């Protein structure tokens, strides 16, 4: 059903990297959510009023919140597809993340309100009017919510949308909450025990817990989470495969929303090679990787001396020190600058977030190893941060 609807209502549905296609998927999921949740809301509130079940009414109000969330998601996809402007040169794609955050907050709000109404039901219990029509409505609601959850999560994964994934998770929560309501009704009928309010509290706590988890998940891209490791690996491997590339470093990836990824990388080339050929190669790396990976890549050319014996020796020494220190990786941009009284050994190293050593301790470790070669060698280190946990 999901694949059929995508093919029927989303133009060029295979090209999920294109902004217009992502917007089409978002519109489809949002409209389906608005219509289906509105139907469920009306049906549950009517059944809840007839039976006197606060849990069913609360469940119906939850569906109303779901419909509102779908409206927010629809607006989010529309706004995130807006082109760049003077105030937002990187586009508006991060609005989709904000939309996911709003949906997550609404889930928590619904859970809190459900706790309030459930506690009131515990303090003032009333018998429920059991009917098979009530059971049928709730069973149909469960089936529809199961499909909604699978529908939204599948589309969310297809277009890498945190907003739709959050919506799908919310639908999954509704399956659990409605099942709990149905369970309480059946128990009340069979054992004449009113657990409607208690079940409502349990459902509400689960909804709040799930909403808090979604807030953490949807806020992570806004805070600047680590890039997709598959993308990092692809950039590294594809750049390294070009003839003339001696090494790569300082790969940094910025995510400004789905389909808006910017990256920069340093390409090491032979300092004795042809400058124009190296520059042409770096340009090709930028163009080809940008096109194949659907990113905007900027490559910086770093010439290095490959035939200097002192440079070769220092590379060997610094590599051994790096291997002996936890949390240190990737010595690069090593340069030997001789002077009348001493020689500066200048290089960059990457310090991982997990590193327990101070910069002073790291500097001392390299200084000890290099001065063992020559007392007149002085170490100058530029400390880089590891932004991608690789390279």
TrEMBL record:
<keyword id="KW-0813">Transport</keyword>
<dbReference type="GO" id="GO:0016020">
    <property type="term" value="C:membrane"/>
</dbReference>
<dbReference type="InterPro" id="IPR002524">
    <property type="entry name" value="Cation_efflux"/>
</dbReference>
<feature type="domain" description="Cation efflux protein transmembrane">
    <location>
        <begin position="31"/>
        <end position="223"/>
    </location>
</feature>
<dbReference type="InterPro" id="IPR027470">
    <property type="entry name" value="Cation_efflux_CTD"/>
</dbReference>
<keyword id="KW-0812">Transmembrane</keyword>
<keyword id="KW-0472">Membrane</keyword>
<dbReference type="InterPro" id="IPR050291">
    <property type="entry name" value="CDF_Transporter"/>
</dbReference>
<dbReference type="Pfam" id="PF01545">
    <property type="entry name" value="Cation_efflux"/>
</dbReference>
<dbReference type="Pfam" id="PF16916">
    <property type="entry name" value="ZT_dimer"/>
</dbReference>
<feature type="transmembrane region" description="Helical">
    <location>
        <begin position="97"/>
        <end position="115"/>
    </location>
</feature>
<feature type="domain" description="Cation efflux protein cytoplasmic">
    <location>
        <begin position="227"/>
        <end position="303"/>
    </location>
</feature>
<feature type="transmembrane region" description="Helical">
    <location>
        <begin position="28"/>
        <end position="47"/>
    </location>
</feature>
<feature type="transmembrane region" description="Helical">
    <location>
        <begin position="197"/>
        <end position="215"/>
    </location>
</feature>
<keyword id="KW-1133">Transmembrane helix</keyword>
<comment type="similarity">
    <text>Belongs to the cation diffusion facilitator (CDF) transporter (TC 2.A.4) family.</text>
</comment>
<dbReference type="InterPro" id="IPR036837">
    <property type="entry name" value="Cation_efflux_CTD_sf"/>
</dbReference>
<feature type="transmembrane region" description="Helical">
    <location>
        <begin position="130"/>
        <end position="153"/>
    </location>
</feature>
<dbReference type="GO" id="GO:0008324">
    <property type="term" value="F:monoatomic cation transmembrane transporter activity"/>
</dbReference>
<protein>
    <submittedName>
        <fullName>Cation transporter</fullName>
    </submittedName>
</protein>
<dbReference type="InterPro" id="IPR027469">
    <property type="entry name" value="Cation_efflux_TMD_sf"/>
</dbReference>
<dbReference type="InterPro" id="IPR058533">
    <property type="entry name" value="Cation_efflux_TM"/>
</dbReference>
């Amino acid at each position: 059903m999901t694949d059929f609807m995508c093919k029927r209502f989303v133009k060029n549905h295979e090209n999920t990297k294109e902004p217009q296609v992502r917007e089409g998927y978002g519109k489809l999921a949002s409209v389906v959510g608005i219509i289906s949740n509105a139907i469920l809301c009306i049906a549950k509130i009517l059944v809840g009023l007839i039976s006197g079940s606060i849990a069913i009414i609360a469940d119906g109000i939850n569906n109303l919140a779901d419909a509102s969330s779908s409206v927010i998601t629809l607006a989010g996809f529309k706004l995130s597809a807006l082109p760049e402007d003077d105030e937002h040169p990187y586009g508006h794609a991060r609005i989709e993340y904000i939309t996911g955050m709003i949906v997550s907050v609404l889930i928590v709000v619904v859970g809190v309100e459900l706790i309030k109404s459930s506690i009131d039901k515990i303090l003032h219990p009333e018998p429920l009017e059991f009917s098979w029509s009530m059971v049928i409505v709730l069973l149909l609601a469960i089936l529809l919510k199961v499909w909604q959850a699978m529908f939204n999560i599948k589309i969310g994964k297809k277009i890498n949308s945190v907003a739709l994934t959050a919506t799908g998770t919310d639908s999954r929560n509704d399956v659990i909450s409605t099942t709990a309501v149905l369970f309480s009704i059946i128990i009340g009928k069979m054992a004449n025990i009113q657990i409607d309010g208690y079940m409502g509290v349990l459902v509400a706590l689960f909804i709040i817990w799930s909403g808090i988890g979604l807030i953490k998940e949807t806020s992570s891209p806004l805070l600047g989470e680590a890039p997709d490791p598959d993308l990092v690996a692809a950039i590294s491997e594809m750049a390294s495969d070009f003839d003339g590339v001696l090494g790569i470093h300082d790969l940094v990836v910025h995510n400004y929303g789905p389909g808006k990824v910017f990256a920069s990388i340093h390409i090491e080339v032979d300092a004795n090679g042809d400058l124009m050929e190296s520059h042409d190669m770096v340009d090709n790396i930028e163009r080809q990787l940008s096109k194949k990976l659907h990113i905007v890549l900027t490559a910086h050319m770093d010439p290095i001396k490959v035939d200097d014996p002192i440079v070769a020796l220092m590379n060997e020494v610094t590599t051994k020190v790096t291997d002996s220190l936890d949390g240190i990786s990737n010595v690069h941009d090593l340069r030997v600058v001789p002077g009348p009284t001493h020689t500066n050994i200048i290089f960059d190293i990457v310090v991982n977030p997990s590193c327990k050593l101070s910069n002073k301790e790291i500097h001392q470790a390299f200084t000890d190893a290099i001065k063992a070669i020559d007392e007149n060698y002085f170490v100058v280190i530029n400390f880089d941060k590891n932004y991608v946990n690789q390279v």
